[in-house]
Amino acid sequence: MRVTQLQQALQEEHNRAVRVRGGEDPPEPGFQWWVASRTRLQDELLRVENELHEHIGISRSALEVAEVNFRRREEQLQRQSELAASEQAARIVRLERELLAEGELQSELAGSSRSGAEELADGTAELTASEATPSAAPEQSPQRPDM
Q: How big is the CA angle at 66 (ends 63 and 72), to the nearest 5 degrees?
């Protein structure tokens, strides 16, 4: 864009020189024409340089804003990642505790069912032993009332 504008300015100066030679524009004395051309070209160059600096400033500002937004987003994602990792770790710890508690309950149940089975076996043995020994009291059979 800048090169194009400078080329246009040079082309305009060339066209002006052609018009002066053709008699369409009043001639300027050689040195004055050179100074005027140089001044016009310098003015055009300064204008284009100012536009360039303005565009560079705008680009830098946009880049700085984009970098700040990128860093904020990166920090936000980092915090979310750390939060998710800590939540996952907490879930794992909670699951390990639940599994440990379940294992303890199962071992307690296994121990109590063994003692229950032992009590049942002892009770059955006592019952069998008491049936084997005759009791001192005679057995009474239920009697039906006569009708």
A: 140
* Alpha carbon distance, N-terminus to C-terminus of the chain: 131
Compute the C-alpha angle 5/62/65, nearest 5°. 170
Cβ-contact 9, 22 below 8 angstroms = no
- Inter-residue contact 27 to 35 (CB < 8 Å): no
Cα distances from 146 to residues 91, 140, 141, in angstroms, run 76, 17, 15
Its pTM stands at 0.41
pLDDT digits (tens, 9 = 90+) for 52-106: 999 999 999 999 999 999 999 999 999 999 999 999 999 999 999 999 999 999 9
Q: Cα(26)–Cα(32) distance, rounded to whole angstroms?
A: 12
